[in-house]
Design goal:
Elements: H1 2-19, E1 25-31, H2 38-51, E2 55-61, E3 83-86, H3 95-106, E4 110-114, H4 125-131, E5 146-150, E6 153-157, E7 165-166, E8 170-176, E9 190-196, E10 199-200, E11 209-216, E12 223-232, E13 235-240, H5 246-249, H6 252-267
Parallel strand pairs: 1-2, 1-3, 3-4, 4-13
Antiparallel strand pairs: 5-6, 7-10, 8-9, 8-11, 11-12, 12-13
Length: 298
């Protein structure tokens, strides 16, 4: 009887271990200042990340942009999270808070630069190194070179020229450049991205940076980096230039790369399966998957 009881107890523990769901990655979205509609995009970003089943997501909103923001009331605790997703493009933070984010990533934290987050903190060398390339925000030729695709390699190109630009919003084709990278593995060689801004002429130090996906700019007639992975200290950064507004966030390709990129930034791995063959296609229209934000429980 005793042996049977032990066997049943061990079996129950085994079943519990097998059936238990893996712990979700804690993710923090930061927003509150942006020249984009963060009030509308943040809830959709949260819905996309949670829909993957991989993340539990909190949001931390900064003080509004004014002459004297009350920064003391905004104290996000980065170390409580496996990954930070930035939907922030605004005023410089107090040094202690800025240093806390940089230290968090340097010491192994994950960071995602989403769309206009790469406009932020143009005069902060550590942030520019962390995101690899950036635009606007006072950046210029001294901020670093462009990256240009030459003979199958991404090479720095110094010289005069703007730092940041885009043409009219439209659909455009994303080309996979690093098919074996965990974020891109299993994705098609090309897919049509939903209506969006195609950023061009980004500059930066581009240290320890891998271009994962790119697109042809009608303005520069160059292939421009759209998706990037950066190593920064012990941390990992996923940089997506995509996602200007809700139409872009509805794109299946945007959602897949965002969730896979965020998981990779947090863990260095991607457990999410790639879309089924044919789900992401190179045309004639982008594959869409609108996700409505879930209202907070009362």
């Amino acid at each position: 009887m005793k042996q049977a009881s032990l066997f049943l107890a061990a079996s129950a523990l085994l079943v519990t271990a097998v059936c238990a769901e893996p712990a979700k990655i804690k993710c923090l979205i930061i927003d509150g200042q942006n020249n984009h509609s963060w009030q509308e995009t943040t809830p959709v970003l949260k819905a996309i990340l949670e829909h993957s089943g991989v993340f539990s997501v909190d949001v931390s909103t900064s003080p509004p942009n004014n002459a004297n923001p009350d920064w003391a009331k905004w104290q996000p605790h980065f170390a409580d999270y496996g990954v930070i997703v930035s939907n922030y493009n605004g005023q410089a933070w107090p040094k202690e808070l800025h240093d806390a984010l940089v230290s968090y990533v340097k010491n192994g934290g994950g960071f995602v630069s989403y769309h206009a987050a790469d406009n932020s903190f143009g005069d902060q060398a550590d942030y520019n190194e962390m995101i690899g390339l950036g635009g606007w925000g006072g950046r210029n030729a001294k901020s670093g070179p462009y990256l240009r695709l030459r003979d199958g390699e991404w090479r720095p190109l110094d010289g005069p020229g703007p730092c940041g630009g885009h043409g009219p919003q439209n659909e455009f084709i994303i080309e996979t450049f690093a098919p074996e990278h965990p974020i891109m593995k299993g994705l098609p060689a090309q897919w049509m991205h939903a209506k969006d801004e195609l950023y061009h002429s980004l500059r930066g130090p581009a240290k320890n940076l891998s271009v994962l996906g790119h697109a042809l700019s009608e303005q520069t007639k160059e292939q421009e980096p759209m998706l990037m992975a950066i190593s920064y200290g012990k941390g990992r950064v996923f940089h997506t230039t995509l996602g200007h507004y809700l139409e872009a966030l509805d794109g299946l390709g945007f959602q897949v790369t965002l969730t896979r990129g965020t998981e990779w930034a947090a863990t260095g791995k991607v457990t999410q399966p790639a879309p089924k063959p044919g789900e992401l296609t190179a045309g004639p229209k982008a594959a869409l998957r609108p996700l409505k934000p879930v209202p907070p429980s009362k």
